[in-house]
Amino acid sequence: MTHSLEARGSEVRVPTPRAGRPPSRRDPRPRAKQTWRRAIARDWRLYTFLIVPLVFLLVFKYIPMLGNIIAFRRFRPGGSIFGDEWVGLYYFQAFATNQQFWKVFGNTVVLGGLTLLVTFPLPIVLALMLNELRSRRFKRIVQTISYLPHFMSIVIVAGLVLQLTALNGTVNQVVEAMGADPVPFMQRPEWFRTIYVSSEVWQTVGWGTILYLAALTTIDDQLYEAARVDGANRWKQTWHITLPGIRPTMMVLLILNIGSFMAVGFEKVLLLQNPLVYSTGDVIATYLYRVGIQSAQFSYGTAIGLFEAAIGLVLVLLANGLSRRMVGTSLW
Amino acid sequence: MVTENLPRKPDIAHVRKETGVIRESPGYRVFRVANAIVLLLVCAVTLYPFVNLVAKAFSSEGYIAAGEVNLLPRGFNLDTFRVVLGDDLFWTNYANTFLYTVVGTVIAMALTATYAYALSKPHLKGRKFFVGIAVFTMFFGGGLIPNYILIANTLGWRNSMWAVVVPGALSVFNLLVMKAFFENFPAELEEAAAIDGLTTYGVFLRIVLPLSKAVLATMTLFYAVGLWNSWFSAFLYMDDKSLFPVTVYLRNLIAAATGTQEIADAGQAAQVASNIQAVTMLLTVLPIICLYPFIQRYFVSGVMLGSVKG
C-alpha cells in the first residue's frame, strides 16, 4: 500500500490509458462498437459489485411493485403472490362505493393539507430569522437544539405527545391555570388535527431549515450592497433579494411535499390515533393497514394503496409541470 | 462546497458594522431583539418535552398523577429505574435493537457502497440503466400489502431478524450521495494502484474505502439512526416478544397505558405506567442524545451533499 502510493508520485502526471479503453472519448465509434461481451471481459470485477444490489432491488423493490397486480386479481392466502384469478376493477369499485373510504379520504386531504400549509412555510421563516443573527455561536446553538427532534424515533415523539396532552400533562396544567377544565385531548376528535400538526411542527421545522440556510449562503453579497445603495431597507432586501434567491429551493421542497401529501405521517398517525378519534384521525394509510393487514383483505387493501400512490404520482407531476411553467424550477 | 461558504456572511456583517458605512435603523434594532427572543422561545419549546420527560422519570407517581411535574422532578426517586431495569424483557429488547442496528447497518453499507462504486465509473456499460432502476424505486414501489405478502408469506420471515434489517437496506438517497462522492474520487490514485497490480477489488478495499471515511461515516450514521429508531417493520412482522426491538417494547407500553379502557377512570395503574413510560423513553433516546452533539454535523453535511448533487 505505501509502496503503491510512493510509486504514484512518478507516474501520476503521465497520461496512462487504461487497458482496453478506446483511445479517445470524443470519437463515438469505438464506444458504440463496444459490445457487452467486451465490456464484461474488461470490467467483470466491477460487474460483480452489481450482482447483490441488483438481486436486492429485484426481490425487495420490483417484485412488490409487480405484486400490486393483486389489486386486479383475487389473492388467496397461500396462493400465488401475484393472485389467482382476474377480477378487473372489482376491488376498486368496492372501495369507491364504501362510505368509510370516502370519510378517510376526506380526513387524509384535510390532515395532509393542514400539515403542508403549516410545515412548509415555517422552515423558511425560521431560516430567515436565523440568517439575521449576528452571533454565530447563538445561531449554532439554536440550530443544534432545533435539529434534535428530527433524530427521535416516531415512537418517542408519539409518547411525548401523549404524555404532554394527558389529563395530568403540562398542556392541561396550562389549561387549568387559565381557569378552564382539563380536556382529555386524545379522546376528542376535534383536537386530533391540531395535535398532529403541532407535533409535526415540533419534529420537522428545525431540520427543514438546513437546505434554506445552505441556499441563503449562495446569494451574492453584491446584490445586497447594490440594494442598499439604492436605498432598500432590510425588509425590502429580504423581499426582493433573499426570497427570490431561495425560490428554487422552495419550489423543489414544495413539489416534494405535495407528492408526499397523501401519504401523511402514517406511522405517527397510527401511534397517535385511537378509535375515539377515528372521525378525524383515521387516514387512508391507517385504514388500509386495518382492513388490509389486520383483517387480511389483501386485494382490497392493495387496490386502495395503488389508488393512493397514483394520486401522489399525479400530484408530483402536476406540481412539477406547473412549477416549470411558472417559475422555471423543476425536479427533472 | 456549501459548507465552506457558511462563515462568509456573518464576517461581512461584522465588517460592515465596524466600518460604520451602514447604520442600523431603530426599527431594525427592535427587530433584532424580537428575533432573538423568538428564537430563544423556539429553543425552549423544542427542549421542553425532553425536560418534562426527565422530570417525570425521576418523580414519584403521586406528583405525576396530581399533574404537578413540569420542569423539575417532584418526590425524587430512582424506583422507576429499578422497575424498568429489572425487567428482563426490556434488556432483551434493548439488546435486539442493538443487534438489528449493527447487522442492518453492515448489510446496508455493503450494498450501498458496492453499488455506488460500480455506478460511479463512467465507462461502465449499462451504467445509466443501473442508476435508473434504482432511482425509479424512489417514485413508485410496492405498497404495504405486496411487501407484507412477500416478506411474511413468500419469504417466511415472520419473527425473523431479516424482516427488520433487510428490506430497507438500500436507500436511493444514500446511494446517490455516495455515488457522487466516488465520482469525485481522484482517478489518478486508482490508476496508480491498478498499475501497481491491484485488481478492482484491491483498489476498492485498500485505496477507495480508506480514503472515503467521511462519506462512509455519514452514511453509516444515516442508516444506524434510522434502524435504531425504526419500529414498524418489527411491529408488522413479529409477534414473539423476545424478538422485539426496544421501540416496539415502548410502543406496547404506551398503547397499554393509553388504551380506551383508561377513559372511564384515570386510575392509579395508568399513572404508574406514565412513570414507567418516561423512564423507558428516556433510556431509549439516551444513546442518540449522547451521540447527538458529535453526529449532528455529519448529518447536515450529508443532507447538503445530497441536495447539491441530487
TrEMBL record, chain A:
It is found in: Cell membrane. GO terms for biological process: transmembrane transport. Residues 1-11 have a biased composition (Basic and acidic residues). Pfam families: BPD_transp_1. Keywords: Cell membrane, Membrane, Transmembrane, Transmembrane helix, Transport. Residues 1-33 are annotated as: Disordered. One of its GO terms (cellular component) is plasma membrane. Its main location: membrane. PANTHER family: BLL4140 PROTEIN (PTHR43227). This is Sugar ABC transporter permease. It comes from Glycomyces algeriensis.
UniProtKB/TrEMBL annotation, chain B:
Its main location: membrane. The chain crosses the membrane at residues 33-51, 98-117, 129-149, 161-182, 203-228, 276-295. This is Sugar ABC transporter permease. It comes from Glycomyces algeriensis. Belongs to the binding-protein-dependent transport system permease family. It is found in: Cell membrane. InterPro entries: MetI-like (IPR000515), MetI-like_sf (IPR035906). CDD domains: TM_PBP2 (cd06261). Keywords: Cell membrane, Membrane, Transmembrane, Transmembrane helix, Transport.
